[in-house]
Write a structure and sequence with these properties.
4-stranded antiparallel sheet; S-protein homolog; 22% helix; alpha+beta; 40% strand; 9 strands; 2 helices; 134 residues
């Protein structure tokens, strides 16, 4: 179908190409890079006076209640560092380290009284990080 006015035809063609290109551009960054989910579980003893405070990467600090999880997704080549405070203890650890964790869809952490346990399947745990105090 040809429209009588060339400007109208040009406008429809431009609009169609623009919509196609923006939907393709928005989909590209996530379509070719593998992603990993970092899952952090608060397995600390119940103590209503002391809460677990977390901060991952450049995000804001937040409290993670007992038995609750925090998840964040990142690309497989992007390291992620978190800081935890459970007064008077604290630590900073690599929640995701590409050399160690690349190729795994999920990286699990269980925060416990004696330290930070790492797993790739959520059932086989290994202590990788200790708490520190001043």
């Amino acid at each position: 179908m040809v429209f009588p006015h060339p400007f109208f035809t040009f406008f429809l063609l431009f609009l169609s190409l623009y919509c196609l290109s923006t939907s393709t551009l928005n989909a590209r960054p996530y379509s070719h890079k593998p992603h990993t989910v970092v899952d952090i579980l608060n397995d600390l003893p119940n103590n209503p006076k002391v809460q677990l405070e977390l901060r991952c990467d450049e995000g804001s600090s937040f409290y993670l209640k007992l038995g609750h999880r925090h998840n964040h997704t990142l690309t497989a080549d992007q390291d992620s560092e978190c800081t935890a405070m459970w007064l008077p203890w604290f630590t900073t650890w690599d929640a995701y380290h590409a050399v160690r964790d690349k190729g795994h869809h999920s990286v699990y952490w269980s925060v416990r009284k004696d330290g930070f346990y790492h797993s790739w399947d959520g059932s086989n745990w290994k202590l990788l990080e200790d708490w520190y105090s001043e």
